[in-house]
Amino acid sequence: MDGQRATAPAADGHELAVTRFGASGPAFANVLIAGAMGVRQDFYAPLARFLAANGANVLTFDYRGMGWSRRQAMRGFEADVALWAERDLGAMLREAGRAAPALPLCVLGHSLGGQILGVAPDNGHVRAAVTVCAGSGYYRYNDRIPLQVRLLWFVFMPILIPLFGYFPGKTLRVVGDLPRGVAIQWRKWCLHPDYLASESPAFREAFLRVKAPLLGYSFEDDHLITKPAIDHLHGLYTEAALERRHVQPRDAGRESIGHFGFFSERSRDTLWRDTLDWLRARTMNAGGAGRPHDGSAK
Predict the structure, then answer these.
(1) Spatial separation of the C-alpha atoms in residues 167 and 110, rounded to whole Å
(2) How many CA atoms lie within 13 Å of 121's alpha carbon, on the beta-carbon side?
(3) DSSP one-letter code for 152
(4) Residue 239 CB neighbour total at 10 angstroms
(5) Residue 156 DSSP code
(6) Among 267, 207, 224, 247, which residue's Cα sits nearest to residue 51?
(7) What is the DSSP track for 95-127?
(8) Cα–Cα 20 to 30 A to 257, which of 131, 145, 267, 295?
(9) Which of the listed CATH numbers 3.30.70.600, 3.40.50.1820, 2.60.40.640, 3.30.200.20 matches domain 4-136+201-283?
(10) By C-alpha distance, which of 23, 100, 14 is closest to 61?
C-alpha cells in the first residue's frame, strides 16, 4: 500500500510535505507519526503501511526546512525547534484527525517527535501516544559516546554554525543539515539538565495537557539516548497514564535495535504488532467505530 504524497499547511500557512496512508477496511484510529531530528518521513513508510493495513489512517510529514518540506537553501532559513512544535506538529495533529474526525487521534513519536509532543498545541486531544527512543538530550545523560557528544556541542556546533549559517551535519554524518535556529536552540537545551523544559514555564506546563495512555519505548543498546534520559523526559508527562517498556534486543528476537531499529521491517511481528495491539486496546473505548481490520501488510 503506497501513501499519497501531498502538502498541508502549518499553523502559519507554511506548506509542509505530507504522506497519507488510508486504512484498509474499517478504521479504528487516526495515527500521526512525528519523526526524529533530521530523519525524512519516508523512513517511517514501512511502519505507516503496516498500521494502515491493520486499520489506521496514518499521516507522516517533514518539519519545515527538512526532508521533502525543504524548498530553499538552508543558509538563511529561519526556524527553531519551538516553531516546529508549535506551528508544524500542532497543525499536523489537526491534519491527521481530519482523515476521520469521529475516530480517536493517536501519535507515534520517534525521538524528537516524542519530546515535542509534550509542548505541541492540541496535544490534549491525543487519545493514545507511543514514543520510541524519546528522551532528554541533556549531554550528561549520554555516557556511551561521551567524546562524540562533547565534540558536537562544544566544538562542531559553535564553530560551524557561524561559519556556514546552518549546521552542516550531513557532511559530518551527524544528524543531518539543520537550520541555524534549530541547531542553536537544540544545543541550548542539550546543555541544560531540564532539556526542553528549560525553555519556559509554559513548556513544562504544556506536558500536563497530555492525559492519554502513553507507552514509552527505550532500548538497551540505544547509544544516542539512554534509559535514564528517556525516564527523565517521560517524567514530564505527569498527567498521562504512563507505561514504560525498556527492551533488550534479544527479547524482541533481534541482535540489535538501537535508536532506529524499531522502524525496521524486522520489527513487524514483534514490536510493531505489540504497538498495534496496544493502540487498539487503548482506543476501542475512546471513540473508535466498528471492528478494526485485522489484515497484515504485504
Answers:
(1) 21
(2) 13
(3) I
(4) 14
(5) I
(6) 267
(7) HHHTT-TTSPEEEEEETHHHHHGGGSTTGGGEE
(8) 295
(9) 3.40.50.1820
(10) 14
Cα(122)–Cα(259) distance, integer angstroms: 27
C-alpha cell at 43: 523512513
| Grid coordinates given for 258 | 538501537
Q: Which three cell numbers stand for residue 161?
A: 554554525
Domain residue ranges of the chain, discontinuous segments joined by +: 4-136+201-283
